[in-house]
Design goal:
- This protein is α+β, with helices and mostly antiparallel strands.
- It has three helices and nine strands, in the order βββββββαββαα.
- It has a domain of 145 residues.
- Strands 2, 3, 4, 5, 6, 7 and 8 form a seven-stranded mixed beta sheet that branches. It has a two-stranded antiparallel sheet with strand order 1-9.
Length: 210
Amino acid sequence: MSTRLDHRNPLVFDTHELGRRPGALQRLSRTVDAPKDLGIEGVIGVPEGKPVELDLRLESVMEGVLVTGTARASAEGECVRCLEPLRQQVAADFQEMFTYPDTDDRGRHAEPVDDAEDEDTLFLEDGLFDLEPVLRDAVVLALPMQPVCREDCAGLCPDCGIRLDDDPGHHHDAVDIRWAALQGLTDSLGTGEKDNMSGAEAGVDEKQEK
């Protein structure tokens, strides 16, 4: 049966050199371009095409190949407090078993597995495995759900939106809305009294002229 995986894909790895003798080890280092949507959508992630450094340890076991590794990359996003762009280094550790699809641990034809178990199992295909789904899950778990540019970021002023770290002394005088309403009423009454006084004065002047 031909494999569906493309060995030219940088996230597809070949285990033929490792062999199937339990205990055999192989260490690999590879820098690959980040696939699309590597991160938390709309929050933070590794931009597509940016370098991702992979350090892998492949171990042959009875059931398949155990892959242990670390991925390192630079993630970009936006601070949830001040909304400024940020960049953060991320190191994601992972370990995953890639199972031989057609034989058991003694090389005999394997018994069929149920659909639920099959969905949770990652298989080798003609000695190849695709690391992308494992990498994607690991990076998402390693990234912060609410990234900040720094731990003590003061955020934005809720009244005017200015970045508080740019103006440490920034503040607005608190005004009680009840006093504000009374002040408005007082101003209105004051204006009315002035108008009445002006009218009265004008009447007095007219009488004096007569």
